[in-house]
Design brief:
Blueprint: H1 11-26, E1 38-43, H2 45-49, H3 52-57, E2 65-67, H4 87-94, E3 100-104, E4 111-115, E5 125-128, E6 139-140, E7 151-155, H5 167-170, H6 181-187, E8 193-199, H7 207-219, H8 227-237, H9 242-247, E9 248-251, E10 264-265, E11 267-269, E12 273-275, E13 280-287, E14 290-291, E15 296-301, E16 305-310, E17 316-320, E18 327-335, E19 338-348, H10 355-358, E20 364-365, E21 377-383, E22 387-395, E23 400-409, E24 412-418, E25 431-438, E26 443-450
Parallel strand pairs: 1-2, 1-3, 3-7, 5-6, 7-8, 10-19, 12-19
Antiparallel strand pairs: 4-5, 8-9, 11-13, 13-14, 13-17, 15-16, 15-18, 18-19, 20-21, 21-24, 22-23, 22-25, 25-26
Helix pairs in contact: 7-8
Length: 452
């Protein structure tokens, strides 16, 4: 199981994060994709002097432009008179827009140290989340320019993601903010980013750096580009690092993938309207460069259809179905490092075509509607030639409940109903049931849910 969480406490916070996440996945940067292949590493103290930022940059893809100098403590991590970067300088650089950012700094739930005399010795320059400091070179994510160039961030700082701290026990107060740095990063509207990987407790100078290196290797590979998978695999690789394998976590959508290339937009080509007797459509997907192969296409019609498949070498996919009602069918097309597309098909209740021109060449069994149901449900099926068809209702263990049809049907579309009764005419209990269509050479089984 791959886990991610977004620690929201209100509908407004949830709406903010969802809006940011959808834009990142569907149209990053509001169409300005150039920032997605830029990486920024912020580093200070021991991590700077061990050149951890240099090593991590070397693991990133060749097509990424990685800045390891603008936000690195200078002239060294241990310098008594560092010249950069103040937190204000870090905010200025972050305003440029970056697809992937990382910080290798000492921290707390509310901030991390961008520079300090010696190793994390006061006076320090702090980068906060939503707490806005007064002078002293510190700054806050809340002071970022408004921008839709959302990023993925990896932190090795202590406690930057400690959303679960019992403050009254573990911290004496007063508290600078109700939010951790991680929460501010995710929940500030039109700022920062959509995915945060950070410590709920402690980070370690060397161990945390090594685990981030594995994360980078995995997340920029073809097989583990989902944030949660890369995070989990990096923990498995360093399973002996018990503190950080438990304490370092993903905050965001576990299914989210990082952009590894400048994305290419997809375009769906499908009919604008079909009628109720239509039993399949051909959908094509293209990019500005031509047909798009191996693209995942999903067709959904509420209560009736959910179909997924991938486009062929010509960028096409045929979607079969049997529909009972008019309405709208929704299409999506998505692939790695491609901007997804969505489309809507109107399904008309009026048929302008004879059955013989649109029926399939074989047997189709539709989704029952409504589903779930509490009194009666309809089942649509179609046959391309006269066929003997038997339709049984089974319980979840495969035992027959009743038979709805056992007849020879002409070619065309057909509908039968089940009222929730068994073969003795008695109402069955709530639960999951199967409906099975059998012909001489074919069997199709689907599920339905009866609720009372």
């Amino acid at each position: 199981m791959y886990v991610g969480r977004v620690p929201v406490v209100s509908l407004e916070e949830a709406e903010t994060w969802v809006e940011k996440a959808l834009l990142y996945e569907q149209n990053p940067g509001n169409g300005d994709f150039s920032y997605l292949t830029k990486g920024l590493i912020i580093v200070a103290d021991q991590m700077r002097d061990l050149n951890e930022h240099v090593s991590l940059a070397g693991l990133m893809p060749d097509n990424f432009l990685v800045d390891i100098s603008s936000c690195a403590e200078e002239p060294s991590g241990g310098s008594q008179n560092p010249t950069q970067p103040t937190a204000e300088m870090v905010i200025e650089v972050l305003n440029e827009g970056w697809g992937f950012t990382s910080n290798l700094n000492h921290g707390s739930p509310y901030h991390y140290t961008t520079m300090a005399p010696g190793y994390n010795i006061p006076p320090r320059s702090f980068l906060f989340g939503d707490f806005i400091p007064d002078g002293d070179g510190s700054c806050a994510l809340a002071l970022l320019d408004e921008s839709d160039k959302y990023s993925i961030h990896y932190s090795i700082s202590c406690e930057n993601a400690a959303f679960d701290f019992d403050k009254e026990i573990l911290r004496p107060g007063p508290f600078l903010s109700e939010n951790t740095l991680m929460e501010s990063f995710l929940l500030l509207p039109h700022r920062a980013g959509v995915g945060y990987l950070g410590n709920t407790r402690w980070g370690w100078v060397l161990a945390s750096f090594r685990m981030e290196g594995k994360f980078i290797e995995y997340v920029f590979s073809d097989s583990a580009s989902h944030l949660a998978i890369a995070e989990a695999l990096s923990k498995i690789y360093y399973s002996s690092y018990r503190d950080i394998t438990y304490g370092h976590n993903l905050f965001g959508d576990p299914e989210m993938e990082i952009w590894t290339k400048t994305p290419v937009p997809l375009t769906i080509n499908a009919p604008n309207q079909i009628d109720i007797n239509c039993n399949s459509i051909t959908v094509s997907v293209s990019t500005p460069n031509g047909p798009a192969t191996d693209v995942m296409v999903c067709a959904w019609k509420p209560g009736e259809l959910y179909y997924r498949g991938t486009t062929d070498a010509n960028g096409e996919i045929e979607i079969p179905f049997v529909l009972a009602y008019g309405g709208q069918m929704y299409l999506t097309a998505d692939a790695k490092d491609m901007v997804p597309d969505v489309d809507t098909i109107n399904v008309s209740n009026q048929s302008n075509t004879d059955d013989k021109n649109i029926i399939p060449g074989e047997i189709y069994l539709g989704e029952n509607y409504p589903n779930p149901f509490n009194y009666c449900t309809e089942i649509r099926f179609a046959t391309g030639e006269p066929s003997h068809i038997k339709i049984d209702i089974l319980d979840i263990a495969g035992r027959k409940v009743t038979t709805l049809a056992d007849n020879t049907y002409p070619s065309g579309n057909h509908l039968i109903k089940w009222d929730g009764n068994n073969s003795s005419g008695k109402q069955v209990a709530s639960g999951t049931y199967l409906y099975r269509l059998k012909t001489e050479n074919k069997e199709i089984i689907k599920k339905m849910l009866l609720l009372k």
